[in-house]
Amino acid sequence: MSEAPAIADQLGNGSLHNSLPELPHRRRKRLRDEQQAASNAAKLIPPDASSRLSTMSTQLPPSSLRRLFTLYLSLSKPRLSFLIVLTTAAAYSLYPVPSLLLPQTTASPSLSTLTLAFLTAGTALCSASANALNMLFEPKHDAKMSRTRNRPLVRGYIGKRGALVFATVAGIVGVGSLYFGVNPTVAFLGGLNIFLYAGVYTPMKRISVLNTWVGAVVGGIPPLMGWAAAAGHSATASGGWEELLFSEASVGGWLLASLLYTWQFPHFNALSWTIRDEYKHAGYRMLAWVNPRMNGRVAFRYAVLSFPICGALWWFGITDQVFLVTSSVVNVWIVREAWRFWRKDGHMGSARALFWAGVWHLPVIMVLAMAHKKGLWEGVWQRLDGRAAEDELWMDEDETGSEPEQHVQRTLQIGPTVS
Asked: CA-CA distances (angstroms) from residue 132 to 153, 202, 291?
């Protein structure tokens, strides 16, 4: 009789149930559920590029340069780095060139192609450095997640020393390229992003759900770098960080940074919801499992902010009025999916729909902004209806004088012709 309370306690806390052998039919059901969950995650989330490259390297000759290149490329998280470079270059191209620097008024190009080359190369190297340090700090935790367990440091294809050397060299060369090829302000932002991503965001993932907000700041800095790089060409004062980042002309850069910042919440919250159990198992504190209801609410709130940000791009003269219409179509799509994701708690395919809406939303918005850059189509229409040619003709006449005026001047100089 004395054993009855102990057995009751074990039944209450589940320890007795866990100690019993798993029945065959329950084991089969558990395996089917796990397989279905993994299949759903694979359909939603594209394979991790670093893991794919790491796996691909095993099929190459062990001592080949190609294998070495593939392994170190996988450390850079090439898909993420490519997206960062694209947003940086897009911001550079969206900068409104002052009229004094337009090609019609100066023989030199308005925005330097060489500067753009240094900007993209330096940004890519800074991103590669930050991503390599991120992998260096958490291989033990990456091994617990299906989409990261094949990364090179987890598998031992690259040692920690090699990864540290790669991250250090990439960071130094990247920041140096931005400093000497662009300007010191952009170089500072590139170095700051390495620190924030590797030194703040990475350890914070295991401490607080606020890591997502820090990661969003990291994602918002690259377009600010592109804007500051273009602003350096038309700086009227010293060209220091105050003028490039906090003058009236810097509003567009902050708006583009805000667009990147807000976009990351609906996109990442949908992605993390699908693998929330893996994040929990790995010890990463994400809203998707800590507070699923808040996870959906945050995704919806930040999706709605895309409307005022796109409106502000027109209000401050970065884009034309047509951008208000075209961007609203895309913004309605992501807001609708974010609303469904919130109301359905990620179920019934809402997480998958929001994830893919986020995948397309950012590049489409950036392309639309570049296509509707303020003044871009005005020049096109002027050339189509001939006004540009007429303006050039009048300018030529003003410089050389009209033909009747030239005849009068010659007549006054040599006198009338005797017939």
From this structure: 10, 11, 30
CA Rg value for the chain: 29
Please report the DSSP string for 34-89 in residue order: HHHHHHHHHHHSPPPHHHHHHHHHTTS-TT-HHHHHHHHHHHT-HHHHHHHHHHHH
Output the average pLDDT for the chain.
Answer: 83
CB of 174 closer than 8 Å to CB of 122: yes
How many whole angstroms separate alpha carbon 227 and alpha carbon 222? Answer: 9
Token pair of 360 as six digits: 């397309």
Residue type, 222: P
30: buried, middle or exposed (CB in 10 Å: 19+, 13-18, 0-12)? exposed
CB contact at 8 A, 173 and 109 = no
Rounded distance between C-alpha atoms, residue 117 and residue 132, angstroms: 22
Q: CA–CA separation, 194 vs 221, rounded Å?
A: 11
pLDDT at res. 302: 98
Write out pLDDT tens, residues 156-210: 999 999 999 999 999 999 999 999 999 999 999 999 999 999 999 999 999 999 9
Q: Are 382 and 392 in contact (CB under 8 A)?
A: no
Cβ neighbors of 54 (< 8 A, separation 6 or more) are 71, 74, 150, 151, 152, 155, 157
Exposure of 43 in the CB half-sphere (CA atoms within 13 A):
10
Q: Of all residues in the chain, what percent carry a pLDDT higher than 90?
A: 61
Q: Is 60 left (phi over 0), alpha (psi -120 to 50) or beta?
A: beta
Q: Length of the chain in residues, anyone?
A: 419
Give mean pLDDT, residues 121-138: 96
**3-state secondary structure at position 347:** coil
pLDDT band at 381 (very low <50, low <70, confident <90, very high): low
Residue partners of 148: CB distance under 8 A and separation at least 6: 48, 50, 51, 142, 154
Contact 297, 342 (CB under 8 A): yes
- Which pLDDT score is estimated for 377? 72
